[in-house]
Amino acid sequence: MPTVEARYWEKLEGGKVKCTLCPRNCVIPEGGRGFCLVRRNAGGKLVTTVYGEITSANYDPVEKKPLYHFYPGAVIFSIGTNGCNLDCKSCQNWEISRQDTPHLRQVLPPNALPELASRYGSIGVAYTYNDPIIWFEFVKDAAEKVKEAGLKNVLVTNGNISIEALRELLPLIDAFNVDLKGMDREYYLKFSSFPNPNVWQVCEEVKKAGKHLELTKLIVPGFDNFTPEYFERFGRWIAENLGKDTPIHYSRFFPAYKLLNTPPTPVEVIDLAYDVTREFLWYVYVGNVIEPERESTYCPQCGALLVKRAGYSVEVLFTPDGRCPECGRPVDFVF
Ligand code: SF4
Ligand SMILES: [Zn+2]
């Protein structure tokens, strides 16, 4: 596809431009590109170089995003491209997120999405793999087409985006999985080379807009503390600011990218995070470990099993009208 003029930027002196799409606010000289690699200053104008171009496409279980409370057991057409506004030390997808590989991209115009997104029982489109924030122009156009077709849009993101741009996307997006790296700026600087995170405010906006939100937190040795107080901070902040019904997925780290010599997270630490956070939140899950009882959903009122999971196998046990089979409490699921 030809390059397309970007949104959210300002002209500066000397042919430079400032991108304001994410809080990194890159100042880009003529001919240069932003930190995310795919927003370029072409003759004093900011353009996106990945509009309608994808590096990856799959029909994934929605549980893989991970979203556990959004159409459990469904399939979703999942696409990604190059680029990211963060540079996380353990990125699983750094080959596409921290490299620009135009020779590996295929063309996918927005109007091709509704048809692809309704094959194989898919419920819609997940913008995932790299971070969709830096793909704003395409995601917005694509999400419009998908929504018009009566399908769902899902954003899997680090959640660091200008609030103005977020508000433009919010009416189009049905569910978010936000990868919450940490609870302070220092964590983002050290782990993701990102100086000015606003993810906490973004999560609050998503929730305020009434959109479905789940969080992921990767627990990384050397970056996260393995104490109850540390995980308490996550539980408390989420409960107070996003609500006790916000699911969080604690994920076990395995060596990747710049952390090849760091050992995997001890399973006991994932269990500690689960136990501590369950005191504050109704729905806590573990990922990258095999513990079906901690991957399943229980009724917060009576403790009955509502959804039984083991890996990507899903058994829905709540009633067809969305109630706990034991006590009748309405379940916190979108389905
Ligand atoms: S979206 Fe990309 S170019 Fe724009 S500020 Fe963020 S990292 Fe920089
Ligand atoms: Zn119940």
TrEMBL record:
PROSITE patterns assigned? RADICAL_SAM (PS51918)
Domain called Radical SAM core: residue spans: 69-288
Where does this protein have coiled-coil stretches?
none
Q: Which Pfam families match?
A: Radical_SAM
Residues that, per the record, bind [4Fe-4S] cluster: 84, 88, 91
The prosthetic group or cofactor this protein requires is: [4Fe-4S] cluster
Q: How is the cofactor bound?
A: Binds 1 [4Fe-4S] cluster. The cluster is coordinated with 3 cysteines and an exchangeable S-adenosyl-L-methionine.
Gene Ontology terms for molecular function: 4 iron, 4 sulfur cluster binding; catalytic activity; metal ion binding
- Keywords assigned: 4Fe-4S, Iron, Iron-sulfur, Metal-binding, S-adenosyl-L-methionine
Q: Which InterPro entries match?
A: Aldolase_TIM, AmmeMemoSam_rS, Organic_radical-activating, Pyrv-formate_lyase-activ_prd, rSAM, rSAM_sf
NCBIfam families of this UniProt entry? AmmeMemoSam_rS (TIGR04337)
* PANTHER family referenced in this protein's UniProt entry, alphabetically: PYRUVATE FORMATE-LYASE 1-ACTIVATING ENZYME, PYRUVATE FORMATE-LYASE-ACTIVATING ENZYME
Q: What is this protein called?
A: Radical SAM domain protein
**Originating species:** Thermovibrio ammonificans (strain DSM 15698 / JCM 12110 / HB-1)
Name the lineage.
Bacteria, Pseudomonadati, Aquificota, Aquificia, Desulfurobacteriales
